[in-house]
Amino acid sequence: MSMQSLSDRVNALVAAFRVEIPDYVASGVVDMTTGMLLAVDTVDSHPREVLDVLGAATFDLFQGRNVVAIENMFKERRGSQSTAHYFQEILVNSENLVHLFVRMPNNDDVIAVVVARKTVNIGMLFVSARRVIKNNAL
Length: 138
Hints:
Elements: H1 6-20, E1 24-31, E2 36-42, H2 48-63, H3 65-78, E3 89-93, E4 97-104, E5 107-117, H4 122-135
Antiparallel strand pairs: 1-2, 1-5, 3-4, 4-5
Helix pairs in contact: 1-4, 2-3
């Protein structure tokens, strides 16, 4: 079995999202340590400036100061000593789209982002995204 580079695995992940996600519009992978967008795939063209801020917006969504404060409060109230992040998946509905952000299970510094049309069945979106992530672990 050959070892794939991280770049190859990230590209395979976004390619699998395109095939498996119902009502697919776009997907990407964000490195939370650098805020960089590691890969992106869209069915439409998007302005570069939108893609450039995706990493920063994803960081704020998962690890912004107030989000970390909430995570720490939940951990404290539950008596958890874990250093793991509390929030693993976040779903955002916009006017026409559904945006699913998922922390990778084997690397919590990497977030997969999947965008689908608002007509998507939310349950199928979650099931499909989780299956793709499980089969394409980073």
